[in-house]
Amino acid sequence: MLKVQHLVKIYPNGTQALRDVSFEVADGEFLAIIGLSGSGKSTLLRCINRLIEPTAGRILWDDIDITAASGAEMRKIRRQIGMIFQQFNLVKRSSVMTNVLSGRLGYVGTVPSLLGHFSREDRARALANLAQVGLEDKAYVRADALSGGQQQRVGIARALMQNPRLILADEPVASLDPVLAHSILKYLEQLNKERGITVLCSLHFLDLVHRYATRAIALKDGQVVFAGLPHEIDDAQFKAIYGQEAERVSIT
Amino acid sequence: MPPTTLVPFFRSPTARTAALSALIPGSGQLYQRRYWRAALAFLTTALLLFLVNWGLVNFKIGQVTVGGITTSWLWLAVAGFWAWNVWDAWAVAAGRRSSAGVGVLCAAVVLYVLAWNVTDVRIERLITRFADFRKVAVDIVNPDLFSIAVDGEKQTCSWGCLLNAVRAGNLAAIAPSENFGDILGRFKPVEAGGLWVRLGLAQPGQTITTFIPGKLFETIALGLLATIFSIIVAVPLSFFAAHNIMSRVWGGAAIYYVMRTFLNVVRAVDTVIWALLIIVWVGLGNMAGIIALTIHSVAALGKLYSEEIEHIDPGPVEAVTATGANLFQVIRYAVIPQIVPPFLAYSLLRWDINMRAATVVGFVAGGGIGFFVVETIRLGAYPQYAAALWGIAVVIIAVDAISARWRERILSDQSPAEVQAPRPWYTSLRTWSYIFLGAALFAGSWLLLKLDARVLLEPAPTFGRLVRDFVTIDLSPAVLDIVVKEILVTIFQALLATTFGGLAAIPFSFLAAKNLTGRSRLLRWIYYATRGLFNVLRSIEALLYVAIFVFWVGIGPFAGVLGLAVTAFALLGKLFSEAIENIDAGPLEAVTATGANRLQAIRYAILPQIVPPFVSYAIYQWDINIRMATIIGFAGGGGIGLRLNNYFGMLQYHKAGTVVLFIVAVVALMDFASAKLREKLV
Predict the structure, then answer these.
(1) Do B209 and B223 fall within a single domain?
(2) In a domain, B338, yes or no
(3) pLDDT for the residue numbered A168
(4) Residues B16 and B63 in one domain
(5) Which of A1, B242, B518, B601 shows the greatest Cβ crowding within 10 Å of its Cβ?
């Protein structure tokens, strides 16, 4: 169970990204986070693994206070939380294999990892995870030689190396060709259903929310303006989230 | 005036702003919250007031006597600037566009009139003393490289003589001259010993013929070793000067600022000046040269490296951090893979720069070709000096080309098509051959330079005094007067040199732009000739040109200006021509499509694209020239370097410390100002 309580984030330049955000996520849920660009989705996800320090509020995960964790404790928490990024965030000049193995860094010793050494099991696991996303033949290719969709699958494989109980996905399909969106989200759905990994995923398109999410929350100007089941988002709700000018568009 | 009429006037914010600026320049702009403008107006006015007064008192610059009062007509230009500042304040308040034209003009009049006078510009000497230059020029064209045996006696044999010998089939009489041997090296029979005997290649006492490398090889070794040492030191240092790394460490911000300041201070002092300091520690010789080159190079590389670390894509750093990795792991897996190509490229660039610096560091440190050059100048041996110049040009042009080609290859960063699992590095023959080659070059250079690390532990007795005097520097008014005067001369030298060099470079740069000269065979030849001219001129350091100009126009700041102008011409010519090559053809097409004629097209489609980079490069060059101007005094080019050399010579270290302090302040300030200005321009 992940509990976000009264979360506030004010950036040093004075921007109020999150204003008193509270919600809960049960284990095994696929929670979609929707809202316009700049509504605070990315900030919210990054506060959960504290890539961004929240200004106030608490985040409890199985009753451990993430917001109070020390540096070493935080790293132990982070290694159980996989993260997937809009821009994939692979090290482009490193091989796919190295990128995937870097997901294991929270578990291995500093000295061997600095020397580039990973155990036989870790390497086998990396290949298995690459196979899971259909890229086992690309293991030794440099990451920048892959297409966007392939890079995002490497990103998923990297997150899987962490053996995560929770995955944070920040607009995982926004930089991809619309036709590739489903292929990526299906992997996330599979992980959610088969392995019971909780997924928090920010999304742009409402029909993707309908298709994959078990529950949704909507942010507007850093506040939660909707929380409920995806099909409950009617036209009035839609206008409240996206503004009066917005029109529904779909991606198929 | 009754207050009733004044009040409505000052109620108008525009009038109030203008009145403020009339009282104190910049205050009106400050009142309008235009902070940069305010600072610029205030500081420039203050600077002009100071400079005109300084010029009048010290050099009687612009002195006129009007109605019995002796003053300077330059005050008119200062008044002009003041008036412009009032107008600017009014324009800002009224929301109008304000043009800097008049202000820049007034400031430029003051600067150039002062510069012209304090650097003792005597253009006429270029003509009246041309005969002196001709003698040197003839020697430079005919370097002492070969000798010919005439009646059993060796005579210098230059190009004409060589040609005759070839025609006459008399090549056997030609041999490399002594000078050639000094510069490049010679084969010499020596008694075998040491390594040869130990390796079993010769018997003890046996005479073997070996190659004794000349000064040019020493110079190459100096540049190479200094580059290797500075990379080793600068790479770890740069992480402490990178904001994005240090912000993740407790107390990192403080370390970052200390580190950055340290690098900037060290970088502001030229290699040759470092050499002056270092010889007090380790004595004359190659060791002093290596240390001086390394220190400056560490600071320069440290800055470039750390900026490169700051410019990496933050995405992977975020992603690896999110997996629970610690700082070292994040650096190893997200930072290092990204910085390898730019680090390699900058290291190669630095190798190029270090090789150039290595050709002159010997002026002071005593080693390499620089020392040889000083000797030839002292003896007036210009054919020998010329041979050294030719040798330097060949080496530096080669280094420049190799470094540029490698950099291009590294930065294109092609991803290999390899899909096999990579083998560990220690099983690769190629890696081992690189390691072996590197080690051999390192050891060879070390042996060639006859370096002995023990001298580091045995500083000269005056070293303690140097350290003590540098801490308690002399800031008495008498010394300050001299130092301020010399540093201003230095700045003005750099200004004039950049102006002369830049103006001369503009027409040539068009001839060296590929996109303008591709049309006919003649133009293409002109293109290659101009490019070649830039490259040859660029390969010789300003200090070496100064040595020639000293002979032509006499010792003094003007010779320094001319020496700097030649290098400015070469570098700006190259940069300008590249700026022309980089213009976007789109606007030209669009303007031409509107029916504009050729001149109109140049005015509206080309000029707007090349003026900002030209101005930006010129400012950059001024910045570089100030740094170089601090050392041209070592070759008789005037400015602060001469004074510094004298203070060191007379062991007046507390005064030398003052000079170094001022150099650091001025160079760092100009560096900052030029970076800010260029940021605004581009």
Answers:
(1) no
(2) yes
(3) 95
(4) yes
(5) B242
User: Chain A, 80-139: which have a CB under 8 Å from a chain B CB?
Assistant: 80-83, 85, 87-95, 97-98, 102-107, 110, 113-114, 137-139
What's the pLDDT score for residue A227?
A: 92
Decide if B316 touches A, using CB distance below 8 A. Answer: yes
B613 and B557 in a common domain = yes
Task: Tell me which residues of chain A have a pLDDT lower than 70.
Answer: 249-252
Better-scored residue on pLDDT, B609 or B519: B609
* Model pLDDT for residues B395-444, shown as the tens digit of each residue: 999 999 999 999 999 888 776 666 677 777 778 888 899 999 999 999 99
**Best residue in B250, B326, B333, B420 for a mutation probing chain A (most A CBs within 10 Å):** B333
pLDDT of residue B163: 86
This prediction has a pTM of 0.87
B28 phi and psi angles, rounded to 5 deg: -65, -40
DSSP codes of every residue in B445-491: HHHHTT--GGGGGS--THHHHHHHHHHS----HHHHHHHHHHHHHHH
A95 phi and psi angles, rounded to 5 deg: -70, 160
Chain A residue numbers with beta carbons less than 8 Å from the beta carbon of B313 are 89, 92
Residue ending a domain, among B118, B151, B173, is B118
Contact status, residue A47 vs residue A23, Cβ threshold 8 Å: no
Spatial CA neighbour of B43 closest among B480, B502, B676:
B676
Range of lowest pLDDT (A129-143, A186-200, B131-145, B240-254) = B131-145
Average confidence score pLDDT of chain B: 87
Domain boundary among B170, B185, B213: B213
* pLDDT at residue number B155: 81
Tell whether B332 is within 8 A of chain A (Cβ).
yes
Q: How confident is the model at residue B10 (pLDDT cuts 50, 70, 90)?
A: low
**Is B138 part of a structural domain of the chain?**
no
User: Closest Cα partner for B487 from B274, B263, B293, B669?
Assistant: B669
| Nearest chain A Cα distance for residue B368, angstroms | 40
Chain B 336-355, CB below 8 Å of chain A: which residues?
A: 337-338, 340-341
Hey, what are B445's tokens?
């250079």
| Co-location of B499 and B588 in the same domain | yes
CA A193 to chain centre: 16
Residues B263 and B386 in one domain: yes
Claim to verify: residue B247 and residue B109 sit in the same structural domain:
no
| CB contact set of A107 (below 8 Å; sequence gap of 6+) | A79, A162, B324
Q: Domain containing B108: what range?
A: 12-118
How many domains does chain B divide into?
Answer: 4
On whether residue B432 sits in a domain, the answer given is no
The predicted pLDDT at position B100 comes to: 80
Percent over 90 (pLDDT), chain B: 39
A82 burial class (0-12, 13-18, 19+ CB within 10 angstroms)? buried
In-domain check, residue B460: no
Predicted confidence (pLDDT) at residue B573 exceeds the cutoff of 90: yes
